[in-house]
Amino acid sequence: MDSSIRHKEEGNRLFAAKDFLGAIASYRCGLSSLPPIDDGDGISNAANDHDQSSTLAERNKLEVALRSNLSLCLLRMAEKTIPANHQQQQQQQQQQQGSSQFVEFSTEAARECSAALQMEPNNAKLWYRRGQANLFMATHSRHDALESHVSSHKDSLLCQAESDIQHCEQLLQQQLQKQKWEQTPTNVTKATIGQIVEARNALKRIETVRLDTDRFHCSDNANTNYTMEQVSTASRLDNNQHIAQDLTDSENCDSSVAQVKSNNSMPNQSTSKYHIPTPSQQKERILLLLTRRQSSTDVDTIDSIQHNHQQHIFPPQKGEAYFLINMIWWENWCRYVRFFQTYTNCLEIGSQERKEDVLNRIQEVDDVNNRVLHLLPPGATLPPYLEKDKKDALGQGQKDNDKSSDDSSSSAKSDDESDIENDLGEVAPGVIDNSSLILNQSRGESSLHSPYLHTCKNECAESDVFLRNNLVRGYHFEILPREAYAALLTWYGEVSPPITRRARSVEELPWVSQGHLQKSMTSNNLSVRISLYADLWDALSTHNHNQHSVINASSSDICSACRAPAAKSKCTKCKCARYCNKECQKSHWPYHKSKCGTSTRQQYQAARNSLSDMAAWGRVGLNNLGNTCFMNSALQCMSHVTPLTRFFLSNQFLTSINENNINGTGGKVSHAYATLMKDLWMGGRQFSSLSPTALKRAIELFAPRFYGVQQQDSAEFLSYLLDALHEDLNRIRNPPYVVLPDVDRGRNLAICGAETWDALCRRNSSYVFENFYGLYKSTCVCPKCDAVSVTFDTFNHITLEIPSISKLNFVVVLVRDYGEQEPALPVKYCISIPENGTVDDLIAVLSNMSGVPASRLKLSSVLIDKCNITQLHRDGAPASLLLNEDLLVAYEIAPLSDATKINVVITQRCVHQNGTTESRVFGLPLLVSFERTIVCGEVYTKIWKYVKPFVLLEQDDIHNSSALEDHVKQRLRIRVADPTQNPRTLRTGFDGSSTSILPFASQDKIVDLIGIKDKEKFVFFSLEWVDVIALTGDYDKNLQVHASNFLLVSNHTSVVDYENRVHRLRDSNAVTLDQCFESFTQPERLDDDNMWYCSQCKEHVKAMKAVALWRLPNILVIHLKRFEYTNSLNRSKIGTEVDFAIDGFDMRKHSAYNCSMSSDSHSEQLVDDEAPMVYDLFGVTNHYGRMGCGHYTAYARRWNEAGMEDTWAEFDDENVNEIPENEIVSPSAYVLFYRRRAFC
User: Fold this and answer.
1) Is 73 known to be catalytic?
2) Does the global pTM surpass 0.85?
3) pLDDT tens column, 346-382
4) Of these residues, 153, 275, 967, 1191, which one is catalytic?
5) Residue 1153 in contact with residue 1171, Cβ under 8 Å?
């Protein structure tokens, strides 16, 4: 490699000195010094090449540079030997040496370019130089009419030169478009424009050569039966003959298509018939084809099409074929032929028109463009350049009205740029290339699309190609009917496979959203659709029953390094290990060298068995380094992300390491992660567990929050790991400044989302970004002016809050203060409130049920065994804290803040005087409010109202009830107590005696008698029942009351309802993952801490915000938010079980792109671009215990192209065990890992 670099530098020096022969020799020496690539069936032993300093990518890059420079020197030498004119050429033909040198140089230049293009097909310079070499040979070959094969060879060279330079010009235009998006400096953009103009001039020279050749043949061979046009057209259509034949000979094809083809192939005496029609002719013919295809009127001219307001358009019919065409090509063609009218051209430069006149002119252009747009299949949009042109036209009219000097200078600058754009717009779009829409299987992009792609290839009758996901009509592609596409194909040719789709009835597309289906069936909208991904949908529906495919353990073609199938190469020494390529072998060599080259047959067989022992692949534990279970669980799930793990196992990540990225770790985390993955997957059974020390140290160096042995959050660690790997592997070395596109009202949201994603990809390009990252769509609506703001943001995992689907159910007993009303038993209520509800919420519901004002209700907890009040609950306390209480009792009392009231806590005791006094607490405690002026006799009367319903509960006879009431009252006494229920002595009377019993008939105020202080809000009474309470079943009902009566209550209707649905309420404690997503997408009002700034109101407002999923990644990571932070001291875990799907989780219903699309007329769209969004679970991170002192484990299963394994493994730090699938779903699930069945 070093020798080749020195030869390259020497060649550059000689080229600068115009010593082209010396430079050619140096470049050839550099090519011969390059290390060879072994492309045979075997791969040389990795031990011989393990210390090689350069990678394969660096070698290929150097080879491309050497061949490119060599071709340029050869072209310079060919220019020196080109004859000046035909006479000189004839003289040199007699001297074969001069002619042979010219042919030699040109042929070798074309050959070197072809070799370099195989390694770098997007190099515009190589396409241009090969086209130049072919043009040299075609221009200066002999004009010998008697030798037809010479003329045919010249035509072939011209066709090849034209195709190469057109491809070069297309690449340059794409590069120019990218430079505009990235706001590249003007000098770089002008250089690209100059190269495009140079390519355009080369195309004009080719046309000039064809004209000269045609005139030469016509003058020397007047009686020939064919023209140059026929030969060239036949050569041009040779590769597309089967396509054009299918397009033009179909039974439903209009005769006008055959006319288009014949007009371009039949001889014409006035002009060369090889030439494609002029831009205006192309525009006219396409418009005529579109109009005659679907209109009932006979239209023959462009004017009648553009100004005909009475066109009757027939809707698309079932079975019609439509072709997809690259949007960039379509846009360039529209500019080239001026298919749509531009807005700036309708304004006279320098005119001083009023703003109303400008708007009228723009409206006229809109009308014309809409009529032309109406000829295309339904749902077509104007090319993006027209939106910019319309804004420029509006701005130009405004500047003409302002007449300011600054605006004049700015307008002059804009005019210069407009001239350049118009000049470029006259360049033909080149050959049709739809490769950007097609999944490139040759580059491995479809290696993990599961077996459905192979099934589709055999079953799909429409097309042999598979489209990329997330294609947007109007941004990535446009669709054209068969007739129009046939004409374009005849004129320009095609280098990519054709992409055709047929219109199908909506009823035949069961995956179409039901809302769109209902709109189509109940209105005058389209009843057919063109499904972009019908092949995948059909395959998924056909093979949905067999999702599990156990990887064949006997397969001998699996790569020993990256575990990919179809590995063809073998280790040349032991013949046991198979590899995809040389890099895989180099990566695997440290683990294979101890087993390579075994001598005995037993050792050979043992080595072979160890390589095919797939039961040990990835089944290795990770040592706990001190509360690192959070890291181990996340790493085990990440190691089962098959495409990412292969990316590291095969050393492909080395070519993407970005050591200079200030947002990354300089590759340290990536290298440590790669080493760990290799130990997990290549170590086999030699490791029972590994220590991830190196990776932890690398992460601690750049993320100090993970330093030490403290317990951390697994989801937070996973998010950082993905970001670190992405930044380390970001291929963008110098990220450009990117301005995300504005999402204006009325714009197509699908196009805006695609523009945003492409803008983000100009700064982010890594294997992690391509597979783990998706897009959110965030919508904010101002509550004052109804302004709407839509933005798109990236994510690498989705955090879902667990919704409060299950209610908190409480049984509350209400003790009323009936006052003057007839008393009744306490009432039992069953109350349900949200899981995050408070005591205030519970009291509010109880107030609505009972009619008692919430301010007069006080909730307390009662301990039944001790029959006393244990706690009065404060307002605003979380209601979840009440779940473990024995009994909840609400008392109707005066507000505690009322200073005129005294609140008395009353417990009840039964007293038996059988020579010895015995007392026992029983019944429901009471909480009663008294006026501070109440006297002792009134206290007895009021308390009797509370207990009377319990006493007279079993009495049916009024006479008996009255007798029992009188008897009980005589044996009822109230003892004043302290908070500990010890007797409290009353103030001494006039006789000098002291007691704790409240006098029955005294008219003394209890405030004075007890000595209640002003700040004392609670007084404690003990209500004693002397020899009237029965504790056994045998008692006299006329003289005694049973103690159990004092716990009886009446039931409210809510109790009956609760008992009827108690079983369903218990089952509802488990929510589904779908419900979590529904809660995630629900709009919410922003609070004071997260207010949104409205650009129209010019202030921060509490906007209504809604977040939706727009673009879903291949690997979907879902974080279930189980930890709540009420405040700095109150942190809790949500233990609700979330029921999630293991196989076949359909995310379409949760994708905003497919649910709401972009416009109100989505039901009128012809194209159905819903791609399968079916996901399968392959990893789960579990959390046990509570926050801060819990434990993490992981469940995972392996998968590859053959499908998902049905065997799950549990990773608990060092321990690895199999686990049945029915235990995967549990209340401990914390982070879920899903993979998409069909990757983007």
Assistant:
1) no
2) no
3) 665 444 556 677 788 888 888 888 888 888 888 888 8
4) 1191
5) no
